[in-house]
Amino acid sequence: MQLIFFDLDGTLLNDASEISPFTKETLSLLSKNNIAYTVATGRSMLSAQGIIDGHDFGLPQIYNNGVTVWDPKIQQFTFENLLNRAEISTVIDTAVSQGITPFVHAIENHRHLIFHARARHDVEKELIDKYFSRINVRLLPLEALPANSQVTNISMIGVAATINEMWRKFSAHENLVAYSGAALEDKKFVWMDVHHCRASKGAAVTNLKEQLGATNVICFGDSDNDLSMFALADESYAPENAKAEIKKSASAVIGHNNEDGIAFFLRERFSL
Description:
By secondary structure, the protein is α/β, with parallel strands linked by helices. The protein has two domains: about 1-80 and about 200-270, Rossmann fold; about 85-195, Hypothetical Protein, Haloacid Dehalogenase-like Hydrolase, Chain: A, domain 2 (2-Layer Sandwich), CATH 3.30.1240. It is about 35% helix and about 25% strand. It has ten helices and 14 strands. The protein has helices at about 10, 20-30, 45-50, 85-95, 120-130, 160-170, 200-210, 225-230, 245-250, 260-270; strands at about 1-5, 35-40, 60-65, 70, 75-80, 105-110, 110-115, 140, 150-160, 175-180, 190-195, 215-220, 235-240, 250-255. The strands form three sheets. A six-stranded mixed sheet has the order 8-7-6-9-11-10. Helix 2 runs parallel beside helix 10.
């Protein structure tokens, strides 16, 4: 069984964060030829569902860099390596001390909740007013966060110097891992997601490989959080726009994400 894992941003999606018509048609061809595929993304299910709905993603889907797996067939979440209370406090206290609003992502009874402090700048306010408020998530004040919450990750956005300083602190923590990248909202800003260090795309991919009985795992990705699944994949491919370290780790470098690079490669690879 061939099993394909797609990262989304910078990989399967174009620069408008969309699945292009050509890629959509390619996914349909994979489905018709019984070639299994799913997603392995740093996004939450909330932010990804509007993008992948209608594209035959029927297998379990990896979100939050491996913390969360959603099985659409049985409508059920599974979790690995949630953040504990001490780790949550460390991230929140560090963010608040730097003038950054932490967005604490939790799941309760299959409902997505985001607990947050007061927004400090316009980009944070835009996230709350124009993004979080229009998706199926309940926004709550940070002080309402229960002690026993199932916290998958904590995200934040800020100027590069501040986020990079926080990234170094979190990366030195024995139980945390942080991923960051340029913010789409404003070029001066950088986003960051913090998870438990044992959560990774690679661990989640390994679990799904065993669960589904796959014999050949093919992964596509463009950033640091894809390295763990590249390390165990039988084949790994980085688009032209990927980070240099990812390209070095890949089986091959293929076309740019904004030029349907993944779709063109798949059509050739599987003679679609």
